[in-house]
Design a protein that fits this description.
This protein is α/β, with parallel strands linked by helices. 27% of the residues lie in helices and 19% in strands. It has two domains: 215 residues, Alpha-Beta Complex (DHBP synthase); 86 residues, Threonylcarbamoyl-AMP synthase, C-terminal domain (Rossmann fold, 3-Layer(aba) Sandwich), CATH 3.40.50.11030. The strands form three sheets. The protein has a nine-stranded mixed beta sheet, sandwiched between helices. Strands 12-15-13-14 form a four-stranded parallel beta sheet, with helices on one face. It has a two-stranded parallel ribbon with strand order 1-8. The chain starts with a strand and ends with a helix. The structure holds threonylcarbamoyladenylate and magnesium ion. InterPro entries: DHBP_synth_RibB-like_a/b_dom, Sua5-like_dom, Sua5/YwlC_C, Sua5_C, T(6)A37_SUA5, TC-AMP_synthase_SUA5.
């Protein structure tokens, strides 16, 4: 299939209405989108991504007002979070309306919903009379895409169109929040920092560690992994010198590793910049055909907690 990369929202809307799946930009990562109310389109998403059917999809819409079509209840803290942070890198788990196919939620009673913050995708969603189911547009288990080119490199042959909205401005998948007895619980750390969430709803539990039956299967421990083995380094330490290793460093390069095989997340130590660079840098290093990639952890505050979470998962094989 010849894939088009462009900004034609009208054409993309027509493809989606015809049951096709396409690449779409969001502020977090690029998504592989299809009509969430069309089981055939949802099946195509699972097939293209090579994703197991037990791993549910996030439903994307363009406004809180449309939520009532897809969920049966919005508890008060969910509404507060939605009003504070949508459009934005936050996904809420809410009781599913029967209109949403079971395939989208892998049979679970909750549906994950979010309003993404990207002008092209918001315009697209506003033009559609259905919501979009969209996982990250990477083959299952690999690093999430933060540019249209990343999507083309890996799924290009299988999608007719990739809507090009430039590099993702956040660079980490959305933070996923569910509610237990009305209390917010974080199931996946992500692009919306915990302290911002807590500023709105008070202290929240974080339950994003993996189990054999995870509430959020995207949190299976081996995920977001490059092909080359990745080893974590505590912040500020230096690895053994090596000509065959690469490094993903936080603020400054390591000694003993060739400069061309190193990437810096943020020279100024800015965690938002580090988050934006994380996946693109990991992809670049993975393409160098090295024996090993060292990755330095970052300060565990703000977005740093989610960055360290992704690095840890990338290190699991
Ligand atoms: O930022 C994002 O969230 C991106 C963009 C494209 O919106 N999407 C994304 O989707 O990261 P995905 O499919 O790669 O990860 C979604 C994860 C699932 O793996 C699962 O962990 C959780 O969301 N999830 C989705 N629906 C769920 C449900 N009904 N119950 C529990 N967890 C759910
Ligand atoms: Mg994903």
């Amino acid at each position: 299939m010849k894939t088009q990369i462009g900004q034609d929202v009208v054409q993309v809307g027509q493809l989606l209405a015809a049951g096709q799946v396409v690449g779409i930009p969001t502020e977090t990562v690029y998504g592989l989108a299809g009509n969430a109310l069309d089981p055939d389109a949802v099946l195509t998403i699972f097939r293209v991504k090579n994703r197991p059917a037990f791993d549910p999809l996030i439903l994307h819409t363009n406004s809180i007002d449309r939520l009532h079509d897809y969920v049966t209840e919005i508890p008060p803290p969910a509404r507060q979070l939605a009003e504070a942070f949508w459009p934005g890198p936050l996904t809420l788990l809410l009781p599913k309306h029967e209109r949403v196919p079971d395939l989208v939620t892998s049979g679970l009673p909750m549906v994950a919903v979010r309003v993404p913050n990207h002008p092209l995708t918001l315009a697209l969603l506003a033009s559609l009379d259905f919501p979009l189911a969209a996982p990250s547009a990477n083959p299952f288990g690999y690093i999430s895409p933060t540019t249209a080119q990343h999507v083309a490199d890996q799924l290009g042959e299988q999608v007719p169109y990739i809507l090009d909205g430039g590099p993702a401005t956040v660079g980490l998948e959305s933070t996923i929040v569910g509610f237990e007895q009305g209390k917010p619980v974080v199931y996946r750390l992500g692009g919306m920092a915990l302290d911002q969430i807590e500023a709105v709803v008070g202290p929240v539990d974080v339950r994003s560690h993996s189990t054999s039956n995870p509430k959020a299967p995207g949190m299976l421990s081996s995920h977001y992994a490059p092909r080359v083995p990745l080893t974590l380094l505590p912040m500020g330490s230096n690895p053994e010198p090596s000509l065959r290793a690469g490094a993903l460093a936080f603020r400054q390069p390591f000694s003993g590793i060739p400069a061309a095989q190193q990437r810096i997340l943020s020279e100024t130590g800015n965690l938002a910049e580090a988050a934006r660079n994380l996946f693109a840098h990991l992809r670049q290093l993975d393409a160098l055909d090295l024996d090993l990639i060292y990755a330095e952890t970052v300060p565990s505050q703000g977005l740093g907690t989610a960055i360290n979470d992704r690095l840890r998962r990338a290190a699991v094989r």
